[in-house]
Specification:
Elements lengths: L3 E7 L13 E6 L2 E7 L3 H7 L7 E5 L5 H4 L2 H10 L6 E6 L2 H12 L7 E6 L6 E4 L3 E7 L7 E7 L5 E2 L1 H6 L7 H5 L4 E2 L5 E2 L5 E2 L6 E5 L8 H4 L5 E5 L7 H6 L5 H11 L3 E5 L9 H8 L5 E3 L5 E3 L6
Helix pairs in contact: 9-10
Length: 309
């Protein structure tokens, strides 16, 4: 099974702190690199971690609050200085399009590569990116401005060849591709060996949901049903539930309720308020509802694994 990794670059909220960077994550799947959100300082952490950006082709922005996108133009500029020539695709609410173009024209003359902007509808759950490996869908969220999360779902791979059967029937290597595609094998004496005897099931597909800034949404679990790893903002503890409601954010307990109701495999908390010097209280609050909860932290690399039933 190929790696499916989420790397946390920043998990703080609007006010910068010495402990946490602004929101940003890297998703790595089947040798492809994707970024979700690009808060201020994202590229600094990338360079400190000696992260190679050559394979970064797609950036998904959840909404247009600065702690989720102020780092974007700086990263675009730096990629140009590094000699990038491949297009970079940016997916974000429509309002970012003209502003991003104006910034590029002002700060990035002679950029050397194309920035392709894709406006997303934050009110609909729809596919915004697809390739042979995965699909990315928007997840409508409820914040003070248009906002969406993103659901990364791996596509099913090919079944695995049973080498013992291939050897037993002396099947030529030239036929492996056809067998993976579902073909039976006919022996020289006319015996039909059915495909299911020649292969085992493909690896189960995995999924990751990134739920950025949002009020608690009792119906959100329906859109992330069965997800293997769920990131859900948890700006506050329940003692500040009124504040969370006022600013259209969620508490750790509310994030845990979404994970529980979705039947998620694991929950990762993040987007912590600057008022917390230690997020242990948030973790404990969530674990009381959904035990398989972890805290996001800069530098965390977490594999997306198939949830246990």
């Amino acid at each position: 099974m190929q790696p499916f990794l989420v790397r946390v670059l920043g998990c703080g909220s609007a006010k910068p702190t010495p402990r946490h960077n602004a929101s940003s994550q890297i998703v790595e799947l089947r040798n492809k690199i994707f970024m979700i959100d690009c808060g201020e300082g994202t590229q600094i952490y990338l360079h400190r971690a000696r992260f190679r950006l050559g394979k970064l082709g797609h950036i998904f922005i959840s909404h247009l609050h600065g702690d989720h996108c102020f780092g974007l133009i700086g990263l675009i500029s730096s990629l140009g200085l590094m000699g990038r020539t491949a297009p970079l695709h940016v997916y974000a609410p429509e309002a970012l399009g003209p502003m991003l173009r104006a910034q590029i024209n002002l700060f990035c003359e002679g950029l050397g590569y194309e920035v392709c902007f894709h406006a997303v509808d934050t009110t609909q759950m729809q596919v915004v990116y697809e390739d042979r490996s995965l699909t990315v869908k928007t997840i409508p969220l409820q914040h003070r401005i248009p906002c969406c999360g993103y659901l990364f779902t791996e596509k099913a791979g090919a079944p695995h060849i049973r080498r013992d059967m291939i050897d037993f029937y002396r099947i030529p290597l030239s036929q492996i591709y056809n067998i993976k595609g579902g073909a039976d094998w006919v022996t020289p004496d006319g015996q039909v060996v059915e495909n299911h005897r020649l292969v085992t099931s493909p690896d189960p597909v995995r999924s990751y949901a990134y739920c950025s800034d949002t009020s608690y949404m009792p119906q959100l679990h329906e859109m992330v049903k069965g997800v293997d790893l769920l990131y859900h903002e948890s700006t506050y503890g329940s003692e500040f539930e009124r504040l969370a409601r006022s600013y259209h954010h969620s508490t750790a307990a509310q994030a845990a309720m979404v994970a529980r109701d979705a039947g998620a495999g694991q929950l990762m908390l993040g987007h912590y308020s600057a008022r917390y010097d230690d997020e242990t209280a948030l973790l404990n609050e969530a674990r009381a509802i959904f035990p398989n909860t972890i805290l996001a932290n800069e530098g965390l690399e977490i594999p997306v694994v198939v949830k246990k039933d």
